[in-house]
Amino acid sequence: MKLRTGLLLGTAFLAGITAGPKLEAIMAPSLGQMISSKAFAKEVASDPDNHSETLRLLTLFGTVLDLVRAEYVEPVSDKDLINNALDGMVGGLDPHSSYMNEKQFKEMQIQISGKFGGLGVQVQQQNGHIRVVSPIDGTPASRAGLKPGDYITEVDGKSLEGLTLDQAVTKMRGDAGTKITLTLVRAKEPKPLKVTLTREIVHVQVVRSALYGTIGYVRISEFDDDTETALHDAYDKLKAKSGGKLQGLVLDLRLNPGGKLDQAISVSDDFIPEGEIVSIRGRHAEGNRRWDAKGTDITGKLPIVVLIDGGSASASEIVAGALQDHRRAVLVGEKSFGKGSVQSLIPVPGHGAVRLTTARYYTPSGRSIQALGIAPDILVKESKDDDGYGYREADLAHIITNTGGNKNKAPVRTDLPSISSSIPSAPPENWPHFELAKPATDFQLQQGLRIVRAMASLPDEAFPLGQPPADKPGDKKDQKQAAAPEPKPTMQQPAAPTQAAPKH
Q1: What's the mean pLDDT in 106-134?
Q2: What is the layout of strands, in order, in the sheet containing 304-308?
Q3: Of the residues 98, 314, 316, 344, which is catalytic?
Q4: How far apart are CA 495 and CA 434, in angstroms?
Q5: φ, ψ for residue 339 (rounded to 5)?
Q6: Is residue 481 helix, strand or coil?
């Protein structure tokens, strides 16, 4: 555990999972012969912590390795065989653990830093298929309309069947400016969809903001190293634009796949004045931890609405759960993804790293949301035909169980504004098709604005379909906090999630 460098809370990886480290160092001309040799058996047997079953299985491993190396139709290097074994050993534990070789580890670090080349889509391997977790705001994938749960079956007309996640991601990457055509299989679509995108250097803009009258809007698309700093910058600019008359805040965590635990804690701390934010409990009691708020609330107790949906995962669920349990915000939207586990990034010196699930996390009320998700206080669907279908943690193979929590549901809310009972759960029949560049078509956002206005004792105001009242967006030069494009403040929500890869 001393090698652990960070705790991650993303739903997936964007760099893949194939590699091979330390075991290379013990390879002689025949690793299989060494494992099955009497000398090796004696050495293993002398270990007081070893068991005969472990020895038997190691012998089996060596036997199969020798068999494959000797009889496979084509020569295979020991390195490839061991890498494949490591890939399966770690990747088979749960959907979020993986082994990375040195190259993959470096790529993941680049992605976490917030700048990388490609499509800006997070993907995950599910039952041998490449499935979209989430697109990143303002990227080719987001603009092309990729959605969570989409399966990517072909790249430029060539099937991805049988490829590892890393191999599939490599095919999707390329020089900026080059085009790529993806074939997608989407639920409820009778035929595969073909989407052509242009690769580009992806600058991850994790925070965006806009001002709607005296109500501030801040979207956090993921939690990277600079998220809290960008949040502070955005909030300060909203206060300045409102002339110091900001009366409420909408915090948008939809399609936010997660990120770094420390950033989720810091963002939560910015709104919760005191009490527990989150706790983590792992296999070893000495590794259990709890984080408490430090008595700060950057808004000065302004009313807050948090928007969530099926793409809100992990780190974003920590923030939403903490604000909900403390009754600091009203959650609006749809049930979240349900990833209640924590991954430790453990480097393997000279090789790569292991991304390993080492703990479950629990909200302040003691609940685990693993495979359950967080239910909104007020249900509001994105579209009229939204039947609640979604790609969530519970849909993944070999997920970890939900254990250790003292409850599965959030404390009953008795403090919801009276307008809650009149908020429709879905758009009316004539509601326009949702478009990213038109906030007035975003039904969840519009209802969130109505609710926070009611919490601020402002008159109910249903925005017209043309242009919602808003001040001019902020400084476009601010990479971390550019508002939506002019002339309208835009809610840059990723079109449909995808992710599994790097950052994913």
Answers
A1: 77
A2: 207-212, 215-220, 248-252, 304-308, 330-333, 378-379
A3: 314
A4: 10
A5: -100, 105
A6: coil
> How far is Cα 228 from Cα 244, in angstroms, rounded to an integer?
21
Contacts of 300 (CB under 8 A, 6+ apart): none
| Known catalytic membership, residue 245 | no
- Coil, helix or strand at residue 368: coil
Find tokens 């040799």 and name the residue.
37
Check: CB of residue 374 under 8 Å from CB of residue 34. Answer: no
Q: Which of 325, 341, 438, 503 is catalytic?
A: 325
Verify whether residue 316 is a known catalytic residue: no
The verdict on whether 42 is a catalytic residue reads no
Lowest pLDDT segment from 99-113, 125-139, 373-387 = 99-113
Active-site hit among 237, 335, 339, 480: 339
pLDDT digits (tens, 9 = 90+) for 294-349: 989 999 999 999 999 998 999 999 999 999 999 999 999 999 999 999 999 899 98
Chain center to CA of 454: 31
Weakest mean pLDDT among 34-43, 119-128, 151-160, 322-331 = 34-43
Mean pLDDT of the chain: 81
Positive/negative CA dihedral, 100, 104, 110, 111: negative
